[in-house]
Amino acid sequence: MINEYTVPDFTDKPVKALFFGAIADKLGKHVSLLPASDVHVAADVVKAVGCEDFAPLLIAINQTQVNDMQTPIKAGDEIAIMPPFSGG
Questions:
Q1: Contact at 8 Å (CB) between 34 and 14?
Q2: Is residue 88 a part of any domain in this protein?
Q3: How far is CA 51 from CA 4, 13, 20, 22, 37, in A?
Q4: What is the mean pLDDT of residues 4-26?
Q5: Is 70 part of any domain?
């Protein structure tokens, strides 16, 4: 039973994967929620959503770009998966 004295269990929060550009087009969606227990590093998220064939990828965790696909992921994190950008 939940009451005002219950401390929420934040380990149940999902990991939110956001997709941009050609990746979103190919997957047919812009967001996916993943159980935090299924993903432990950025590479797990990429594999879980079916993006392992896209290369290169830009990855941001909680709006901070990361270069290491072994960067840890925790419950409630937001992972943005993007194709490389160019422009002028």
A1: yes
A2: no
A3: 41, 22, 12, 11, 19
A4: 79
A5: yes
In tens, the pLDDT along 21-44 reads: 999 999 999 999 999 999 999 999
Six-digit token string for 16: 């939110």
Please check whether residue 34 is in contact with residue 15, taking contact to mean a CB–CB distance below 8 angstroms: yes
**Structurally, how many domains does the chain consist of?**
1
The 8-class DSSP code of residue 8 comes to P
Place of tokens 């943005």: 80
Looking at residue 63, which CATH number applies to its domain? 3.10.20.30
pTM over 0.85: no
Q: Is residue 3 part of a domain?
A: no
Supply the range of the domain harboring residue 48.
12-82
Amino acid residing at 22 = A
In 3D, which of 66, 83, 61 has the Cα closest to residue 16?
A: 61
> Token match 């159980």: residue?
35
